[in-house]
Specification:
The complex is a heterodimer of chains A (386) and B (259). By secondary structure, chain A is α+β, with helices and mostly antiparallel strands. Chain A has helices spanning 7-34, 39-47, 66-79, 81-101, 104-116, 230-236, 238-266, 278-306, 312-342, 347-355, 365-375; strands at 121-124, 140-144, 147-158, 165-171, 180-186, 192-197, 208-219, 223-224, 268-269, 272-273. Chain A folds into three domains: 7-119, Butyryl-Coa Dehydrogenase, subunit A, domain 1 (Orthogonal Bundle), CATH 1.10.540; 122-228, Butyryl-CoA Dehydrogenase, subunit A, domain 2 (Beta Barrel); 237-375, Butyryl-CoA Dehydrogenase, subunit A, domain 3 (Up-down Bundle). In chain A, strands 1-4-5-8 form a four-stranded mixed β-sheet, with helices on one face. Chain A has a four-stranded antiparallel β-sheet with strand order 2-3-7-6, covered by helices on one side. In chain A, strands 9-10 form a two-stranded antiparallel sheet. In chain A, α3 packs across α7 (238-266), α7 (238-266) runs antiparallel to α8 (278-306) and α9 (312-342) runs antiparallel to α10. Chain B has helices at residues 37-53, 68-77, 95-107, 128-136, 189-195, 216-219, 245-255; strands at 2-7, 9-11, 33-35, 56-62, 81-85, 113-117, 140-149, 153-159, 164-170, 173-177, 200-201. Chain B is of the alpha/beta class and 259 residues long. A nine-stranded mixed β-sheet of chain B has the order 9-8-7-10-6-1-4-5-11, sandwiched between helices. Chain B has a two-stranded antiparallel sheet with strand order 2-3. Chain B is globular and about 70 Å long. Classes of the chains: A alpha+beta (386), B alpha/beta (259). Chains A and B meet through α1 of A and α2 and α5 of B.
């Protein structure tokens, strides 16, 4: 038992872990090799009531708290961080702005099918020239008659090829963060195209696309909340995103750590298990200690967010520490596996490739450090997104 | 139709169980415990009957306080309420006492049908469900791999070595189910959250009308006189393929009469 979780969290963790073991783990390596998100996993999760769990029951959710989302991310990433990436984008990151800021019509139209797995969601912020600097996006949404016309290109969009709807950040006003609005664009809207499926080093079991908007006309009812508030809406989600991504790192690292430990105990060289060599066992001790530290920092940040306390410092630290930790732990897991870890049929090589994005996607380590530095009072508030 | 289903919490069968050499009781400290996997089929079967007939399910369980987790899981899967008997005086009870306690608890419900797993994954006596049936004076239909409820009757396919017998009996009745009768559902998160608010009645032995002096180790009619570790499994036979391995494997399996 932990101070962060109660009986419902523990029961959910046990049952969800069993689901992941039975339904996801057996197909994780094949999805990675194929470079395709296994859509049937999402549909099956929806059928079992495991998608969009933070939504209220009226929209098909279970009113799950932040700790429950942490459990779900940890357990799914244990089997496949790539699949978890697609699920987090769908279940949390794309859906939350609609739930929190969308109209009654938008909620009714998108949330229940998202929770049941009948619709897949994506969110499109990043552009070729606007990554960490979200406020500089160039995609425009021009008012036209009773709607808007979107023009621009979005890259690295998780679920881009398979999405039924995409929450798109586009500029409706002047430059800077005050000119950005969010729109819901349905797949198949005229002028909206998937330019290409993107091939990646890791997270290959998630779907990633480049999206193109060419005179894409959307109705006025597709605007989320108020025009010009899009940047703020995105920022509202940021701490939760950092926390669930940190939890993903923790789950992925646990998988690498368990395999490294059992291999070090089973593999014999010079007549003894390699775990009996100090250099190997101390490597595992370091992995375990770093993993646990990142896990507790993640839980602490989640706990603060759950109590609606300010947690930007903790969530950025958790995201930074967990992202660096999972790279080190998966790298060391390969080292412990030696030549076998270097082979493409090992699990640890997949973990290692999946870990690499964790200091990049959803806020680089460098951006997290800038946020932390500002919270520590080391620099002014200007320049970098909060 | 109201259905009662018996569940038991057992040491995780994927771990290695231990017996206390002094008391001959199961060592429960520091051991992962789960709802008996065999009982998951019972809960699923009970839910399916209740859903098909517009009734509900009562979970009945006896065990140490921690066993409430197994009860909660059954509630999370969809059972409506639970009767959970947890009393330190029951520690060391034998199968007959367990059946007496469970039967007394079931008698307080309005269940027309009682479902249980065939046997527990720790004790393996396989006698508790039929003892419950005897104590309640109801027919027992055992080893069901298929279950259907009609008007005042229950019909099962009883697993046999070569196929199945079709067995029918009048309700109320007790049915034991085998693994493979269904695919137990995963509890949804909504179900897990809802389980918190479902009633769990925890009657005392006195409330069940059971004399406390007749339960526990002292009241057990059956005694475990010795426990010994199971014999180590002998090393397997390795068939090295020299071109005839397939034929030798077939001969080996044929000798065992498994093909």
């Amino acid at each position: 038992m932990s101070i962060y979780f109660d009986g419902e969290h523990e029961l959910f963790r046990r049952e969800y872990r069993r689901f992941v073991e039975n339904e996801v783990a057996p197909i994780a390596a094949a999805a990675d090799r194929a470079g395709e998100f296994p859509v049937q996993v999402l549909r099956s999760l929806g059928k079992h009531g495991y998608l969009c769990i933070q939504l209220p029951e009226q929209y098909g959710g279970a009113s799950a708290d932040v700790m429950m989302l942490v459990v779900a991310a940890e357990e799914m990433a244990y089997a496949s961080s790539g699949i978890d990436a697609s699920l987090l984008v769908h279940s949390v990151i794309a859906v939350n702005p609609i739930y929190r800021f969308g109209s009654a019509e938008q909620r009714a139209r998108y949330l229940p099918p998202a929770a049941s797995g009948d619709m897949i969601g994506a969110i499109a912020m990043t552009e070729p020239d606007a990554g960490s600097d979200v406020a500089s996006i160039g995609t425009t949404a021009r008012p036209d008659g009773d709607g808007y016309v979107l023009n621009g290109t979005k890259v690295f969009i998780t679920n881009g090829c398979i999405a039924d709807f995409v929450v798109v950040a586009a500029r409706t006003g002047g430059p800077g963060h005050r000119g950005i609005s969010l729109f819901i664009v349905d797949a198949g809207s005229p002028g909206f195209k998937v330019a290409r499926h993107l091939d990646k080093l890791g997270w290959r079991a998630s779907d990633t696309a480049e999206l193109l908007f060419e005179d894409c006309r959307v109705p006025a009812g597709s605007l989320i909340g108020e025009a010009g508030r899009g940047f703020y809406y995105l920022m509202e989600n940021l701490n939760l995103e950092r926390i669930v991504m940190a939890a993903d790192c923790v789950g992925l690292a646990r998988a690498a750590l368990e395999q490294a430990k059992s291999y070090a105990l089973a593999r014999r060289q010079f007549g003894q298990p390699i775990a009996s060599f100090q250099d190997i066992r101390f490597m595992i001790v370091d992995m375990e200690a770093r993993w646990r530290a990142a896990q507790l920092l993640t839980y602490e940040a989640a706990w603060k967010l759950q109590r609606e306390e300010s947690c930007t410092l903790e969530s950025s630290m958790a995201r930074y520490v967990a992202g660096e930790m999972v790279n080190r732990v998966t790298g060391d897991a390969i080292q412990i596996h030696g030549g076998y870890g270097f082979m493409m049929d090992s699990d640890v090589q997949r973990f290692y490739r999946d870990a690499r994005v964790m200091t990049i996607g959803g806020g680089t380590s460098q951006i997290q450090k800038e946020v932390i530095a500002r919270r520590l009072g080391l620099v002014g508030e200007q320049g970098v997104a909060k | 139709m109201h259905v009662a289903v018996c569940v038991k919490q057992v040491p995780d069968p994927s771990g290695v169980g231990r017996l206390d050499p002094a008391t001959h009781c199961l060592v429960r400290e520091g051991v992962e415990v789960v709802m008996d996997p065999g009982d998951e089929y019972g809960v699923e079967a009970a839910l399916q009957v209740a859903e098909a007939t517009g009734g509900d399910v009562t979970v009945v369980s006896m065990g140490p306080a921690k066993a409430l987790e197994a009860v909660r899981k059954a509630l999370a899967m969809g059972a409506a309420r639970a009767v959970f008997i947890s009393d330190d005086r029951l520690r060391g009870s034998d199968a007959l006492t367990t059946a007496r306690v469970l039967a007394a608890a079931i008698a307080r419900t309005e269940a027309d049908l009682v479902i249980a797993g065939t046997e527990s994954t720790d004790g393996y006596t396989g006698t508790v469900p039929v003892a419950i049936a005897e104590l309640l004076d109801r027919p027992a239909l055992t080893f069901a791999k298929h279950l259907e409820v009609g008007d005042g009757t229950v019909r099962i396919h009883r697993q046999t070595e070569v196929g199945h017998d079709v067995v029918e009996g009048p309700l109320p009745a007790v049915v034991t189910v085998t693994g493979g009768i269904n695919e137990p559902r995963y509890p949804s998160l909504k179900g897990i959250m809802a389980a918190r608010g479902k009633p769990v009645e925890q009657p005392t032995l006195e409330e069940l009308g059971i004399d406390p002096s007749t339960v526990g180790l002292a009241g057990a009619a059956q005694r475990v006189v010795a426990v010994e570790p199971a014999a180590q499994r002998a090393a397997g036979q390795v068939v090295v393929d020299d071109g005839t391995a397939a034929a030798r494997l077939v001969a080996f399996l044929d000798d065992l009469k498994v093909i």
